[in-house]
């Protein structure tokens, strides 16, 4: 059976499993729809967090970034894993102890303000749509290559599948589907990594095989006129390495679709254990990713050194990916340099092309395609729940129609998923960048908006609603404007112009969120100091969530309600 046949097989098996889980776990109330009834076991929740976290950016694009950026690509490894540690220590247990459905719920009750709720809900929607664009782009890339359909139809198919299990099962369906998706994606990622490590070094453990492959890769690069792969700061300046790493860490800790996963367990202890299991499950992929990056780059450059551009065009994997337009062989020439050749290969194909590159069996190639789809769809579904809860629960259910019965809120939540999927699909068809870059923008927005108000909301009881709203808006608006100025192009006289700004005092678009975050902290502090403190009841809540005794959800809600809320 060929690659397409095996891909159809694996996609049919896995998609049937996902839909079956959705039917089995369908819900009929808002508690099940938004937080899975808060009954998910810690191990399963940790696995679901891992799937939610290891999106198309992690599975499809991260190894490609590390492969092309070398040392500087490690910002994604350090930022995304370090950020999860930050989330597990600083925020997750306290937010679960506070006890709500969504991040805007926490913001509204902590800052005793419905205005703060609306601002936080809008920010959550904006961050989630930016993030989901990368996931849908990843779905399109997989389908366009392995099922030979257009990127547009690939995105549409992904939308339909996500819509089925997100609408039927809500967070409960999404959670159990993500458990299955984690199993698919981690097996799909590690099998080729083990096989290639063994082929190159005789050692099947990719994390260990790095030690032998890296010196060979450095030597090969220097032979071809490239700098050493392990040389630092050759693609990003030291300033940008620092800024992007910090943005990815703090953005991770502020991502609504990750935070909400800790509301699905029954208590604070389960939230802590969820963090432990999630770190373990995430680490399996994140420690293998740099090995896959090095292996694929070595194969490409070794083929170039031995065959040249003309010989490489005869390779089956080049021909297959050239048909999708993701390897631009039309730009190749017999005298081109290695660096020019690398510039014609889309970064998003590295993981997906690695099994073909290493001549692995067709069933492995098909399995990797299914793993890439699992990674993209798992995160997309989590983001859809955030978008749905922000629109249906936080804006409609709490602001527009607080008297709406549970059945009506559930209907609006499902309707919001359909509307969100249409927008997400359009963003996937017309993405503002490659997968991991688009996702990095989402982290910048989360770092500049949510991280400061969550941290200050837990650890500074004097922080008030005026400061939180002013800081959140300042950080979010500044970061959005700067990303647009540094990434947007306009057509002048039929020619695509350069972006208005190249950088902001040396900081690029992926790292600009650090400035927005600092502005958020500063504005929140200054405005808070200039305005009255929160009600004593709210300050008591902040004290209580940091102490060992676990308050019940009812106690916390009663205390928050006593603080009042502005209209």
Features:
mainly alpha, Sodium/glucose cotransporter, two-stranded antiparallel sheet, globular
Structure report:
- It is a single chain.
- With 567 residues, the protein is an all-alpha fold.
- The chain has one domain (3-449): Sodium/glucose cotransporter.
- Helix content is 74%, strand content 1%.
- It is built from 23 helices and two strands.
- It has helices at 3-24, 30-35, 42-53, 56-69, 74-98, 103-110, 114-146, 151-201, 206-223, 238-253, 256-259, 268-286, 289-312, 316-322, 338-342, 350-357, 362-400, 406-429, 435-459, 465-487, 513-530, 536-544, 553-562; strands at residues 491-492, 495-496.
- The protein has a two-stranded antiparallel ribbon with strand order 1-2.
- A hairpin with a 2-residue loop joins strand 1 and strand 2.
- Helix 6 (103-110) packs antiparallel against helix 7 (114-146), helix 8 crosses helix 18 and helix 16 packs antiparallel against helix 17 (362-400).
- The longest helix has 51 residues, at 151-201.
- The chain is globular, with a radius of gyration of 24 Å.
